[in-house]
Specification:
Helix content: 25-40%
CATH superfamily of the largest domain: FAD/NAD(P)-binding domain
Largest sheet: 8 strands, mixed
Strand order of the largest sheet: 6-5-14-15-16-13-17-20
CATH class of the largest domain: Alpha Beta
Shape: globular
Structural class: alpha+beta
Radius of gyration: 21 Å
Number of strands: 20
Number of helices: 11
Mean pLDDT: 96
Amino acid sequence: MRTQVGIVGAGPAGLLLSHLLALRGIESVVVETRSRAYCEARQRAGVLEDGSVRLLSESGLGDRLAAEGLVHGGIYLQFDGQRRHIDFRDLTGGRTVTVYAQTEVVKDLIAARLAAGGAIEFEVTDTAVSRLDTDRPVLSYTGADGIRRDLECDVIAGCDGFHGICRPAFPPGLASVREREYPYAWLGILADVPPSTDELIYAHHRDGFALHSLRSPTISRLYLQVDPDESIENWPDERIWEHLQRRFALPGWSLREGPVLDKGITPMRSFVSAPMRYGRLFLAGDAAHIVPPTGAKGLNLALADVAVLAPAIDALLRGDGGPADAYSDTCLARVWRSTHFSWWMTTMLHREPGADEMTAQLQLSQLRYVTSSRAAAASLAENYTGYPELPGAAGT
């Protein structure tokens, strides 16, 4: 068997890469260990940067996004008994973000690929990559039909996440890994209740951080800071709502409650593996980097990676290796900017376990500065809406 590009992972990075390659006339095969139903249902990120929206729209994937996405012109920062607005439009010359769940992005991408006759194989097992230092790397896997396949490729893209098989396929000692584990996690719920806010609320509280996000005009997404070793069994719905009510409490404002549809605990870490290429194997998305979700960067970084990777692969297949050689450094510049921003937002807003009053006052001082200085607010807005500008959006 043969294809031009073998793609491991049917998340946003792998699916968008397949779509962008198809627009350039390049064929690919996407393999995924999970089922299609699982990929289209798993709850993940929900905020798209300005450039991510433009990329999806310019790539022919914007119809449902335009109809159902919720455009937000800012966020709220709540602390010390007050809630202040950061106005993205005013601070960045009109840029916004759009709330559109990752599950919906994945649904749109799968539908588009299948409608175009794209090859996606779900529920594969025993995936492996080999001959990566040659110009004919091999992607091997056992299909859902039980047949073992060896797929000869020109390029393999590892879009298979933090626990995937592609990053470990790098030779020992090649990659430098830098990571940080945070002393807190997020307990997230999806609730069948209209949002109590028009834009996201980031709340700093002595009991811990809280975030009010949303998924649609009728569905809310909310988060609580908890200990990283906390068990979800210790958090019945009543206790979750009690803590949310306390951390979001503000005179004259009320938090609506409703049935909890889904809940889980997510640990928080920063992780960057460099380089993002070995031979004919390229990493994208969570396979190469993870950021804490406070800055809403994970999904956007995955999309940005493949916006760079698609034209780089195109050039490589036409005999120009320059963009492929620059791929890792190009992406890592954005990755480190987003990693810093996510770390900054995280450490400013979360209660540090065992922190003294000095730390608490330093956090409050930073929040007061961000919400009172136009320069500081503009820096937050610029990073949140997407900095630097997303490459490749006009080159699909």
